[in-house]
Amino acid sequence: MSKEPDEDVDLFDMEQFKRSFKKILQRALKNVTISFRDAEENAIWIRIAWGTQCTKPNQYKPTYVVHYPQTPYAFTSSRLKSIMPLLGQALTVASKHHQIVKMDLRSRHLDSLKAIVFKQYDQTFENHNSTTPLQERLDSRIIHENKVENERVQRITQESFGDYPQPQLEFAQYKLETKFKSDLNGGILAERKEPLRCLIKFSSPHLLEALKSLAPAGIADAPLSPLLTCIPNKGMNYFKIRDK
Amino acid sequence: MSVLRPLDKLPGLNTATVLLVGSEDALLQQLADSMLKEDCASELRVHLAKALPLPSNVNRPRIDLIVFVINLHSKYSLQHVEESLHHVDASFFLGRVCFLGTGAGQEHHCILHRNTVLKLAHTYRSPLFFCDLEVEDFRATMAQRLVRMLLICAGHVRGVSALNLLSLLRTSETPPPEEL
Amino acid sequence: MSVSQQDLDPDSTTDVEVVTDTEEELIKECEEIWKDMEECQNKLSLTGTETLTNSNAQLSLLIMQVKCLTAELSQWHKETPEITPLTEDVLITLGTEEFQKLRHDLEMVLSTIQSKNEKLKEDLEREQQWLDEQQQIMESLNTLYSELKNQFVTFSETRIFSELKTKMLNIKAFKEKLLSTLGEFLEDHFPLPDGNVKKKKKNVQESTKQLITLHEILEILINRLFDVPHDPYVKISDSFWPPYIELLLRNGIALRHPEDPTRLRLEAFHQ
User: Which terms are listed as keywords in the entry (chain B) (predicted)?
Assistant: First the structure.
């Protein structure tokens, strides 16, 4: 989630934030359990167990929220539609912002989300060069004809993805609502006036590294579609694509 | 010149050169290594290319055999091969070209149907082999066969010419009627 | 001698000449072939190139194949195989090559056959062992059979009858023996009390009746048990000496009647 601050926030008061957050949630729902933990310097970890008017809070399905007070960002572990508005409101008010917007970025790795959102992913931790082709043992008898082309592909990949290890995401999902475009004349689908709905999902244990290695492995043309390469830049991995 | 011609230069002494064309470099590299491991009396050279036409400014020896490697898991590799076929002189197809389909062993990853590749090989009247290049044993056997084909195409085997070999190898039968 | 030496000298020089001649000849032949190749190459480079599309590929390739195959065929017809000049050193080199190949093949054959032999020997040993074991089994079965056969006696009634008779006589004799031994034993160890026996209890009345021996008591009990099996009880009479009755009861040889303490029976050891 991100917040767009309308006012400047002067100094962040941790205790006040905690009190305010607790108060808001407890006023709305009597049965909630809230606990705070200052795990890192710049972060506050909140654990919330939700209950309803009649039932006790369910401690086995808590929601975790991590908020970085210096930034207008908070990360949450739950996607329950019912509690999101309330949680959003509590965070907004407690941190003295005016509005909260949900970003289309999801992953199982908090560090990667942080890296993308705080734009820290282009720091090279180790100076590892893009993989050089292994020296062939008998390299005098094997000749690569397309050296120039290979170099071009490497260069383009490097430009789009950079030299550094990519943040770790598991999915990229594209919801298409566009009209059907086809080279063949006619066909039933081409005549539809309504847009076609279609969902494409890419999944991988480490999606961005996989995309980065597509062109060098010869599975796709370089440059890759900008829809794929813009993921870290735009900070989104769930897209909705409509005809303009 | 952008079109590859057979017998366009005098051969090198006791050398035979094969050109592997395919979009996935790693596979070609592995196949090249396996081919070079075979012992044979002549010197082998392997050229790897992603697609034709080859860059023209290079001085390369005469190419005796072209192997087009198609990965059944990627439509992209088929596309590249089909485009490259237009840059090959017709006389190459008299026994100096063969097609190699890889990845048929993993059915659930295959996007291309076997018959597509069969049809392609049949259209160009050239032999087609299926081999999973990722499995070392199959790759070694395939490399042996390719080396023998290469020696014949380079003329190092008395009494058999590339065209003879072609006639002896049954080129792929007409693909089954459901495909046509 | 000198003549022969002279003869030798010219021979040696001709040998050397022959060697260089063959080499030179071979080189000359190679050069000629190379020249032919260059000519052909020049002709080839004059031919144009032609690329194919998917639609016209099959037909044009088939036509080309026909042309080339007929050309090759006529070439094969025209050509007569030429052999390299069979000079001495050529023959020697070819011969050594052939022999080496032959030797290599024979060595392979030898090693294959040796390994086959070994395998056969192992198989033979194993089979032999198995055969021995089977024979042993056979022998033991045979002895068993013969033993059983001997035990088998022909069925004959009279034989059985006489056997039974002898058995009965044996048993009777044994019974007599047992009874006499029992009698002796009882006389020795369980005699009738005479005057030397100390009277422990004074209120025991000496019976006037004659006491009978333990042997006789036992006999009465045994006879009663076998004569009247459904009522094997014997009334205790005064002629039974009480201590012996106690002895029999305590050792489980005799049992009291469950309702009548004055009656005794012998324990049915045979049932």
Answer: Centromere, Chromosome, Cytoplasm, Kinetochore, Nucleus
